Amino acid sequence: MRWRKMIGLLLLCVTMITVAACGGQEAAPAGQNGSSNTENSSEGDSTALKDVKVVLDWTPNTNHTGLYAAVDQGFYQAEGLNVEIVQPGAGGADTMVASNEVPFGVSYQESVTQARTQDVPLVSIAAVIQHNTSGFAAPVDRNIKSPKDFEGKSYGGWGSPVEEAVMQSIMEGEGADVSKVKNINMGDADFFTAVKRDIDFAWIFYAWTGIEAELRGEPIDMLYVKDYSDALDYYTPVLVTNEQTIKNDPELVKAFMKATSEGYQYAIDHPEEAADILIKAVPDLDKDLVVASQKWLSPKYKDDAPRWGEQKQEVWQNYTDWMFNKKLLDEQVDVSKAYTNEFLPQ
Fold this sequence. Notes:
By secondary structure, the chain is α/β, with parallel strands linked by helices.
């Protein structure tokens, strides 16, 4: 799992999202479109279920466990839904949701914010994790203990403008100069390969790569970006739908979110069992990594929020203002249209 690429790939998708949304894709045949009204029932089952697809942002990992738990535990079925979890196509999850190819997907606050500036109708309907668990990581022998220590070091990334903007933001607070950081494109190399080859630090999600470092006995220093700026404590990842689905089928969104909330609550309450569900669904995953990651991440899904999925306007506004000030947005965004808590169960 190369979580370090997630944000970059989705930001690079914005143009593709716009083309898909404005160009209008052909409607999928009945039974293939995740938002269709086709109902299926298995032989001998009198309960008709509505087929629904939810597209992941990347390969399956512990960010997604609540979805798999909701399938496994029958929470979707109880709401009349037959949910299929699918991988993103070439254009990415945002493209598929924005163009109404599927009604639900996994995305990121930064990607939704970028999309809204181009009138792409994505709407965040839940925060999967309450606080940003990403940050800059380096093997302990690089002696990177603060953002000032980035100076003179080599950073491995994917060349997105947001990377340098974030680095600059947290370095400025310590009087450091981002121009003294050497940027290297990591290509397809993972974090562990790259730090042995030609870089000193990279941007990772601790819940996966950080936990993997622990299991490998390769200690790292982790600088969480949220610890250096309130604006960088944004929601990553989020669950999204599109405005058309909200308008035309709000009951579908409500039912999907009720079951999904139950799935994530199950993962909060039963991390080991939830890890087993994910491993059963995706046997190629490293079992030790999944279990350790799930134990670390489960308490962070809800954290200090009154309920799982809750989103705050100030989080959306703070990050939008930060992106605009860093010239990552061409215009300001009405954040009230970018997210909603309306469909979370009370």
